[in-house]
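User: Predict structure, ligand adenosine-5'-diphosphate.
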Amino acid sequence: MTIPAIFKLKNMTASQGGIQVLNVPSLDIESGKVTAVVGPNGSGKTTLLLCLAGLMEITRGSLLFNGVNISGTSKQATLRQHTTLVFHEPLLFNTTVQGNIEAGLQLRGLPKSERLQRISNTARLLGISHLLNRSAIKLSGGESQRTSIARAIAMQPDVLLLDEPFSALDAPSKTMLLNDLGHILAKTNTTAIFSTHDLTDAIYLADYIAVLNGGTLVQWGPTQEILQNPKDTFVSALVESAKTTAELVLKNTRFREDG
Ligand code: ADP
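Assistant: Predicted complex:
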């Protein structure tokens, strides 16, 4: 499949502790779309996101960002300027919610008026305007995750990376965040890549799905294609496990609104 891609990966591998834990034969990430990286624990999701965030060196193959081959630490720094990674356990500073969102903007040297504008916009998008003066370390799990996503979105990265953004949340908080994130990403046309062990999350939110099994990317493509044509028994079993949601989506009752 050929798509206009912001990321193009070909025969890319990466290692953890000297052992190869990730092998991506081929993956394209389309600009302005949402891609879900789906796989069980230990399948290489975080490793892939770290490579895309410029926080980990690839060992073989190629990783192209906007057509530029990212190899070597200087190129990785470029990648870090264009991406923001949100970790599944929110890492918030011991200051207010506003202070947390503002920190990265201050580091970038943005003037106060621009910082305040971005804080107000992203807080509204994430539904946390009423929390701006609250201490970030006293927030609930859902509020903390919303704050760390607001902080990332305020940076206006070319690519927003989210590592298991829903895994630490209770069911109601997860449903609400999934819903809100779907609307925000569609409205802002953000290129986003998130990882999850739950295909249902991917079906709700993603235009594209990439499936990892034991460190190898075994299939990727548009969400509907993955659901309709799983390539092997692993992907079939994954689709079967999310059958009810998959059936709804195949009947065109899509959760995510476009535009
Ligand atoms: P996932 O995000 O899907 O749970 P990871 O990318 O975190 O998977 O891990 C992929 C593999 O790399 C796993 O086998 C994991 O045990 C291993 N791994 C992760 N981090 C390290 C590390 N710092 N040192 C050695 N092995 C690691």
